[in-house]
Specification:
Chain A: This is ER membrane protein complex subunit 3. Chain A: One of its GO terms (biological process) is protein folding in endoplasmic reticulum. The complex is a heterodimer. Chain A is mostly helical. Chain A has a domain at 13-36 and 49-93 and 112-144 and 180-256. Helices cover 56% and strands 2% of the residues of chain A. Chain A contains 10 helices and 2 strands, in the order ααααβαβααααα. Chain A has helices spanning 13-40, 49-66, 74-89, 112-142, 160-163, 179-189, 191-198, 203-212, 228-240, 251-258; strands at residues 149-150, 176-177. Chain A has a two-stranded antiparallel ribbon. Chain B is mainly α. Chain B has one domain (20-117). Chain B has 5 helices and no strands. Chain B has helices at 20-47, 52-77, 82-86, 90-96, 99-117. The model of chain B is unreliable at 1-10 (pLDDT under 50). The chains are: A mainly alpha, B mainly alpha. At the A-B interface, helix 1, strand 1, helix 6, helix 7 and helix 8 of A face helix 1, helix 2 and helix 5 of B.
């Protein structure tokens, strides 16, 4: 039934002058992009001590909740709980006093912190998308109008308009594609090549990094998420509900049971 | 003294505690091994001139073989039951994770070598 399609004869020079250059350029641009994003990252700014204090106290409360079973006696636990309850119910450790009107939400666009944050996001996004668009334009501009390669698998004819964009032969087999599709294949497949070349999975690097720079508190967008006093209140309510049970309770029984003959 | 229920492990102490950085590193080890193998097996596939479904079958088989080999080497190098200690859910971490990424890099090398070899 199927007509035997004669093999299209492709010029071997295409491989040398189109196929390999596109891959090499894409790898190099990818490496360049990672280094540029590295350079664009701002050095961590010093944070106001009030913000850090607030976060640390929140963390303290959370850790207490998580590890409450390490206390030996119930009195130890309740003493601490009472202390936290009296301390954190006040506004002593808050970065700023809660707004008197709860419906008064600050405009996130006027806050200087958040505009910095947004700028940073825009920059990193641009560093991702600009090179891709430029390469796509470059491939489309220089290498259009001919069949570059035959893909080793069949595609349905729906892909023709995308992958054979500049070739006007309606009956050509869809596995013969122009250079833009080689670009797409590279775009998807080069991820692992990058990670092998840049060696970002190096364990020593990672551990060094995490030790050197203390995790900065994420610059929260104003108006996004609950305010700190609500967070404190929520954590406290959770802590008050804890049914205390020491991990050392009945430990001798458990020990004996474990080593029973 | 309160009676304790028998044959019931206390739940909160049964799970091993993990250091996040180390388990991340362990996962990256798999990623590295599978990156290299999927790229090179893609090259093999292109040189062997496999087409359409044969190539994808080749990918699946080599991927499974790599995973099993990783698993077995892990077992032989370290003490028994170690895979469970090093990976939170070993089956999905070793066998299934990021399979799209490996398929993409496999396909890239396959296409490249297929085009280079065929004249």
């Amino acid at each position: 039934m199927a007509l035997e399609v004669p093999e299209l004869l492709l010029d071997p020079a295409l491989k040398l002058w189109v196929l390999l250059p596109i891959s090499v350029v894409m790898v190099l641009v990818g490496i360049l992009r990672t280094y540029i994003t590295m350079l664009l990252q701002p050095s961590p700014k010093l944070q106001s001590y009030k913000l850090v204090r607030e976060q640390q106290h929140l963390n303290k409360l959370r850790t207490f909740k998580k590890n409450n079973h390490v206390f030996n006696y119930k009195t130890e636990f309740t003493n601490r709980l009472n202390y936290y309850n009296t301390e954190y119910s006040t506004t002593k450790y808050l970065k700023e006093l809660p707004p008197s009107d709860p419906n008064d939400v600050p405009n996130p666009l006027t806050d200087p912190n958040s505009s910095d944050f947004i700028m940073q996001m825009v920059k990193s996004n641009a560093a991702n998308y600009v090179p891709q668009t430029v390469i796509m334009w470059w491939v489309n501009f220089f290498f259009k109008g001919y069949v570059l390669m035959k893909l080793p698998f069949n595609l349905t004819s729906n892909f023709k308009s995308m992958l054979q964009s500049s070739i006007n032969t309606p009956n050509l087999d869809a596995s013969y594609v122009s250079s833009i599709s080689w670009y797409f294949v590279n775009l998807l497949g080069l991820k692992s090549v990058y990670s092998l070349i840049l060696n970002d999975g190096d364990a020593v690097n990672m551990i060094m990094q995490s030790q050197q720079q203390q995790q900065p508190v994420m610059p929260q967008l104003a108006g996004a998420g609950p305010t700190a006093d609500k967070l404190f209140k929520g954590e406290l309510e959770g802590a008050l509900l804890i049914q205390f049970k020491s991990s050392l309770e009945n430990v001798e029984d458990r020990f004996l049971q474990r080593f029973e003959v | 003294m309160a009676k304790i229920e028998k044959k019931k492990k206390p739940e909160r102490f049964s799970k091993p505690i993990r250091f996040e950085l180390s388990s991340k590193y362990n996962k990256q080890l798999i990623t590295k091994v599978k990156d290299i193998t999927s790229l090179s097996f893609g090259a093999c596939c292109g040189i062997l001139n496999l087409t359409s479904i044969n190539g994808f079958i080749f990918f699946i088989i080599t991927n499974i073989i790599t995973s099993i080999a990783f698993y077995l080497i892990h077992l032989s190098l370290f003490k028994k039951n170690s895979v469970k200690l090093y990976y939170e859910n070993p089956l999905s971490d070793i066998f299934l994770n990021d399979i799209g990424r490996y398929l993409a890099s496999f396909t890239m090398m396959w296409c490249l070598l297929f085009a280079l070899v065929s004249t």
